[in-house]
Amino acid sequence: MSDLIEPKVLKGFRDSLPQKEIAKKEVEAILEKVFTSFGFVPLDTPVLEYAEILLGKGGGETDKQVYRFFDHGNRDVALRFDLTVPFARFIATHESELYFPFKRYHIAKVYRGENTQRGRYREFTQCDFDIVGSDTVSSDLEILLVMESSFKALGIEDLTFRFSHRGVFSYFLSKLDISNKTVEILRLVDKLPKIGGEAVKEQLSGLTDPEKAEKILTFISREENNERTLEKLQDLSGGSNPALDRLRDICRLLSAGLSRSAFILDPSITRGLDYYTGIVYETFLRDLPGIGSVCSGGRYDNLASLYTKTRIPGVGSSIGLDRLLAALEELGKIGCKPSNTDLMILCLEEELTGYYHSLAGKLREKGISVEVFPEKRKIAGQFSFAEKKGIPFCLICGSAEKESGKVNLRRLSTRENFDSLSLEQAVEILTQGQPPKA
Amino acid sequence: MSDLIEPKVLKGFRDSLPQKEIAKKEVEAILEKVFTSFGFVPLDTPVLEYAEILLGKGGGETDKQVYRFFDHGNRDVALRFDLTVPFARFIATHESELYFPFKRYHIAKVYRGENTQRGRYREFTQCDFDIVGSDTVSSDLEILLVMESSFKALGIEDLTFRFSHRGVFSYFLSKLDISNKTVEILRLVDKLPKIGGEAVKEQLSGLTDPEKAEKILTFISREENNERTLEKLQDLSGGSNPALDRLRDICRLLSAGLSRSAFILDPSITRGLDYYTGIVYETFLRDLPGIGSVCSGGRYDNLASLYTKTRIPGVGSSIGLDRLLAALEELGKIGCKPSNTDLMILCLEEELTGYYHSLAGKLREKGISVEVFPEKRKIAGQFSFAEKKGIPFCLICGSAEKESGKVNLRRLSTRENFDSLSLEQAVEILTQGQPPKA
Q1: pLDDT per residue as tens digits for the range B266-294
Q2: ipTM reported for the complex, 2 dp
Q3: What domains does chain B contain, in order, with CATH numbers?
Q4: Chain B touched by A6 (CB under 8 Å)
């Protein structure tokens, strides 16, 4: 009988309710402040791009994950599935307008038609920060410092930053004469946290031989400190090389008092099949090891090679904001405020509507967020409404109070009433959470 | 020969370069602060929804403007083309979790395959704020107050808010016995600013008769003040009615000292064929009349009727953020800063990389945004880089300065040098823009 349309959202998509959106905006603001303090600038690119731009000329492989269609002009288009590819295209498009090294951050939604059974979403927010146009230890280091500052600003200090260098791994595989199996080996090493050392060793043995498998496992294990790990890497990869030198420089700078965080050289970090060529990073929360890395990245040789002949090296890292928010919630680091309103003015008499709004205006000038309840309802109902919205105070004012220029306040959490206050006294209570000195 | 992909964006889509994105974020932050101060909360909905949700069950009409396709699961989906329809769906989906009246704002991108020749974009940002669940003069008024506060916070005070009431217009047409031609008449009245009074009158005459056309033109013209306009509307629409009462209440509240802005009752404001049923609003900048309304909206009877049987009235307004940004730029109200960085630390010696980063860390703790130039280049080139990025100060420090714990500053705009400063003295200059007192 009903002609109603069921108000459902697509599988893998979600609404963000106010209390989640408030928390998300707070986290974004904290991160943006950190990025800005390091000289990173924001930019934005279209959600929709030519499919060829996003997928490359061949571009069939990732197809299943990509929202791709033909638009009205019969253009082959797709929704961005990450922020790196659009950034590469952006750099090529605006090469002549930008100054390098160029440092940008980008917090935006991306789209992947992933299997939702693994708890993945099809629309999610990424937060990327990159330095392009400089292949230096300074930039490699700076990304780590931004990562550290970001988590510190969010109130998370109990975490470890793990890093390694893809180049060192390449030298090592080359020394073992198994460079031709790099892809398979990387894939197996990447499985280590999931399937464990024994299983990896067995599969590596099948791929190479037991002796080499043993060596690979020795290579990717950590020693008791970064210096020892460096020594081992040097031994196993056949002496010094530029990649190892870079890694040594980074370790030296990190240990020179720049930071007190746990930066661990961990050769098992390879970032799997990603396009990284230099340093690679991952970040783990000590209290939530199960959620995996919350901020990962690395150095790439040539960002925009699909679109320009200019070689543009870069280094950067990315935070999965949804996963981070879930983690912050689990750690109790973000609140669940359904609103940021400080005060609600009750509607006792609809004739006083103008007066209520003028009181609200005066209080807003003092930096107080004020909601005016718009219609007359039972007072108990209005109190309960304010309580459900997490508003700490109500202002109660009828004709008599208006006459005398006074207001009454009620703190909902304690049911305390503060009667016959001047507006100044009310401001005092509202801004300090304290009753005025008698 | 080249296998490069041309790095072009789709027609009607744009990149947002840092200086534009910085300005946009500043404007958004200002607006969000205003909305929050009135008790509005943020929310977000998916960019992609079921086509049926966005277009209704029939839903073929707007097709050409809507990005619609079949996803991997063969679902008929579309990109949102405004923020109102997803909000209606959101309200129906979460009806039981929300408390009414519910006040939300939403700043997000929407998509329309419009003709780009008219200077329209296919991806643009809307900023909506609505109060739903209360059909009161208080809510009608509050939206106007939020509009006023928003533009004031953006530094624009020379503007007029024009409003009217669709219901009064209906009573009037009913009195003239031409209610059956409402749609055509609204369409013509909406053309007034474009084609002028004479043309509208001629077409109205054809549609009705010359006498009625004359009356319609009299109805939609303004008198010298809101009171006179109200009187005229009452005469022409056959005495008092609830719509006129609401309009009178709003005028009375606005003139009671709540605000000093120009709120003009202008019966020619009808918002064309939109779904409004009560008050309607438009906003014009006095210095830029040509760009049309920068913030428009109104009251609707029943927001979510497609999805739920609950009647949910609402009132709200919407800012086209791209048009507003263009206007602010033209009015010189927003800067064109290519970065928010306060200081760049030059790289004189790559061996000092760690020291540069530690200096930067100390300065950031003082609230200063610091960029560390990551590699050794000619000093003139580094200065020029900082200048192009709009960074006001450079810090120059070599081994000798490091030894003595001193730094040198240079203010790029004036070429002033401040030599041999302690870090505290440098902070003093950087935070006040003034040299330290000798």
Answers
A1: 999 988 767 899 999 999 999 998 888 99
A2: 0.94
A3: 18-40+86-95+133-330 (3.30.930.10), 343-432 (3.40.50.800)
A4: yes
